Amino acid sequence: MLISLLKEFTKDRDLVRPGATRFATSYLTLACLNEHKAALMATISSSKWKSSKFVTTKEGRRFEAIVLDSRGFWPYVTSCLRAAAPLIKVLRLVDSNEPLAMGFLYEAMDRVKEKIISNFNNVQR
């Protein structure tokens, strides 16, 4: 029931995306959730959601609270993605079948470090 309702609002896209590497799966799923944020909000605003039996369950109320949490959940998702996205690109390079020179990897990691810093407006924590 819930899955079919979500698929209706996300145009039949899955929210959980398996990654090429098991380490990236959680971050790819977060990216997909972030991409479909509006669809998730439309889902819980719909009459189908409000008339479903899921809305009265503990899990349904928790799901609704998370999706509507614009001050907690969504900013953390964005922050996590700004840090993880550049790292995932390098992880894909390392996980590929092609051998890479160490110098190339060091350079890629330096670029990732700079990209992460720029993603956070050059504020180091």
**Amount of helix:** 55-70%
Write down the secondary-structure element order: HHHHHHH
What's the tally of helices? 7
Mean pLDDT: 83
Main beta-sheet strand count, sense and barrel state: none
Q: Segments where pLDDT lies below 50 for 5+ residues?
A: none
Structural category is mainly alpha
- Distance between the terminal alpha carbons, to the nearest Å? 43 Å
Give the C-alpha Rg: 18 Å
> Could you give the count of β-strands?
0
Shape, please?
elongated
> In percent terms, what proportion of residues is strand?
under 5%
Question: SSE layout and pairings?
Answer:
Layout: H1 2-9, H2 25-35, H3 37-45, H4 47-51, H5 58-68, H6 73-95, H7 102-119
Q: What do you see in this structure?
A:
The structure is a single chain. The protein has 125 residues and is mainly α. 68% of the residues lie in helices and 0% in strands. The protein starts with a helix and ends in a 6-residue tail after the last helix.
What is the compact description of this entry?
The chain is mainly α and 125 residues long. It is 68% helix and 0% strand.
Label this structure with key terms.
125 residues; mainly alpha; 7 helices; 0% strand; elongated
